[in-house]
Structure formats: C-alpha cells, structure tokens
Amino acid sequence: MKKVIYPGMFDPVTYGHIDIIKRARELFDEVVITVAKNPVKTCLFSINERIEMIRESVKGLDRVNVDSFDGLVVEHAKAIGAVGIIRGLRAISDFDYEFQMALMNRKLDEKITTIFLMPHEKYTYLNSTIVRHLAEFGGDVKCFVPEFVCNKLKDKFPLFYRK
Ligand code: ADP
Fold first, then answer.
1. What whole-number distance in Å separates Cα of residue 66 and Cα of residue 80?
2. What is the CATH number of the domain that holds 134?
3. Among 23, 128, 132, 152, which one carries the catalytic annotation?
4. pLDDT at position 160
5. Tens of pLDDT along 65-95?
6. Domain containing 78: what range?
7. How far apart are CA 36 and CA 70, in angstroms?
8. Mean of the per-residue pLDDT values for the chain?
9. Within a domain: residue 163?
10. pLDDT tens, residue by residue, 16-30
C-alpha cells in the first residue's frame, strides 16, 4: 500500500494541480493532498476554503484524500505513513527551487522520496497566482479551474462577478 503526499498552497486549486493528482493516482495506491495551513505567502482563500475547493474538485476520484499541515512536509509525510512527496514541474523556472527543496527534504529524511511529475503541456503556463490576477480583473478563468472554484472566485471579486 503505497501512499504519497502532494503538498501545496492550492490558492486556489487549478486544472494543473488536478492533472498532477490524477497522474500520481495512476502510480500510487493513495494520494493525500496536503494543504499548507500557514504558507509563507498570504493567501486569498482561507485554509478551510482551499480544502473545500479541493474536496469538491476531486470528489469523483477514489484513493484521493485531502488534509492539511503546519510545519515540515517530511514530518507530515512520515506521520501519515507516506513514502514520497509529489511535486509538479511546469517549466525550467520551477526547477531551481524544487531541486533545493527536494535535496533539503532528503537531508531531513532519507526515506521520503520526492517525485516530480509533469502536467499536460496545456497546463505548463498555469499557476494559481495567474488565476487570481485574472479573476481580480474580470478575466475568464473557467478553462483553468473547476466550476466550483470559478464560483468562489466570483464571490471574492465583485468585478468578475458582474461579468
Ligand atoms: P502554485 O501557486 O505554483 O500553483 P502550489 O503551492 O499550489 O503553487 O503548488 C503545489 C504544487 O503543484 C507544486 O509542486 C507546483 O509546482 C505544482 N503545480 C502548480 N500548478 C501546476 C501546474 N499547472 N502544472 C503542474 N504542477 C503544478
């Protein structure tokens, strides 16, 4: 029974994240999406909102669960019996940071392996920051996020809502 965790802020979850979740699910028995409670950056959505949006987005997928964490990812992985950490790699720009994180995490716990997965090409330019900015200025985000998330963004930005 091989379990992996997929940690991140998911502010909000996008089709890029969902693509990675589905790929991880093909490879492992259980994928736990682990939402950072107190990320370094300030989030648009609260921890409960981010969890709710992910739960809604993966509700048809068995063997995919959602939880949250505060602290070190490797400690959380160990605590829930995960063998690895899933990270998505979009472009070269992700590589440097992800490489440092993976090496640091390995130093912290040799047994927890970081696994990088690439999304479909159509999601390589997609990130949550772009989605938030688009929504803030009334852009159409429905091809980037599930409908439930789209509606949550509408609630946050009245300008977008008027569209
Ligand atoms: P981001 O703001 O970059 O979406 P997250 O903390 O939510 O940041 O990302 C969590 C993980 O998901 C990271 O490994 C990140 O590289 C990956 N990820 C985010 N967006 C995508 C995408 N469009 N395709 C593949 N991986 C992604």
1. 12
2. 3.40.50.620
3. 128
4. 58
5. 999 999 999 999 999 999 999 999 998 888 9
6. 3-158
7. 6
8. 93
9. no
10. 999 999 999 999 999
Structure tokens at 33: 């999406």
Cα–Cα distance, 155 to 163 (Å, whole number): 12
Instruction: Provide the 3-class DSSP secondary structure of residue 91.
Output: coil
Encode pLDDT of 92-105 as tens digits: 888 999 999 999 99
Q: Is 41 a catalytic residue?
A: yes
Q: What's the CA dihedral at 123, 14, 149, 54 to 10 degrees? A: 150
Q: Compute, in angstroms, the gap from residue 147 CA to the centroid of ligand 1.
A: 19
Number of independent structural domains in the chain: 1
pTM: 0.93
Sequence-distant (6+) residues with CB within 8 A of 87 are 6, 98, 101, 102, 114, 115, 116, 117
Pocket of ligand 1 (CB under 6 A): 8-10, 14, 16-17, 20, 87-88, 90, 94, 119, 123, 126-129
User: Would you say 82 and 5 are in contact if contact means Cβ atoms under 8 Å apart?
Assistant: yes
